[in-house]
Amino acid sequence: MSEAPEFTRSTAVVATSEGPEYHVDIRAARHALAADEPESEGGADTGPTPVGLLLSAVGSCTAITLRMYAGRKDWPLAGVRVRLGYEKGSDGSARITRRIDLLGEGLADEQRARLMEIADRTPVTRAVTGGIPVVPAGAGIPPQRRETAS
Which residues are in coiled coils (predicted)? Predict the structure, then answer.
């Protein structure tokens, strides 16, 4: 029988929604964000939707990871543009589409191919495709404690 793994928290986020509207105030470390639904869905459109935030997380993690990797290899990557979409199927399924443009001259075909491989292994992409579990608060965050994300 194997031992239970130890977990180390690297990010904490606090999301608060009060009142009749869907607006949510989000604290991630020292950064304030917001989420909402569009007016067509009963929200006030004061921020991106939760799906928009998810796509932003996938896109930003992809861009950052590819820039870091290319930088460590001293490859001539001038920038990364990631375009994402969320599509719902008629059968209730869903998928995220992602287009990655590697910007700059001088990248060899092998380097481009390697960066596209790395894109599928970014931390947020793995979280989304691997199905990281969401566990109850008893697993580490006391329910009565209001914490600022760190």
Answer: none
